[in-house]
Write a structure and sequence with these properties.
By secondary structure, the chain is α/β, with parallel strands linked by helices. Helices cover 41% and strands 24% of the residues.
């Protein structure tokens, strides 16, 4: 868990998403699902990395599964995100478990979570999320 401990430490330095494997670190301050989505779009190999993220719902959980990370830490983890990680055998830790991920306005569910709420396949989730974030990609 050394990689996860370092990822968690770097997350606390004001970052939003951190992946660590040995000496290799990927650090982002981008919000939402973009850090993980961009890693998958770029086809960067992060298999076996430890992921620490501010917020992990079902959307980020699916992206982590596709990226083949070894373990996930979430400051805030949704029940759907937890269930998705468990279904695919991804180890996880969290600080706070919540029923749903709220949107930035605070008046409803996160649109990324809505996008994948009825999806039961990581590849389908990836395509839906990519189309939502980058509609002309």
């Amino acid at each position: 868990m050394k990689d996860l401990d370092l990822a968690k430490s770097l997350l606390r330095d004001g970052n939003t998403c951190v992946l660590v494997k040995g000496e290799d670190k990927i650090i982002s301050k981008q919000s939402g699902i973009r850090p993980m989505l961009d890693i998958l779009i770029s086809e960067r190999d992060v298999k076996g990395y430890a992921l620490a993220d501010k917020i992990v719902g079902k959307a980020v959980a699916y992206l982590a599964i596709l990226a083949k990370v070894s373990v996930v830490y979430a400051e805030v983890l949704s029940v759907q995100g937890k269930n998705t990680l468990e279904k695919y055998g991804i180890k996880y830790e969290y600080s706070t478990l919540t029923e749903i991920i709220i949107n930035r306005k605070g008046d409803g569910q996160c649109p990324m979570e809505e996008t994948v709420s009825a999806v039961d396949d990581p590849s389908v989730a990836f395509n839906k999320l990519k189309d939502k974030v980058y509609p002309i990609f």
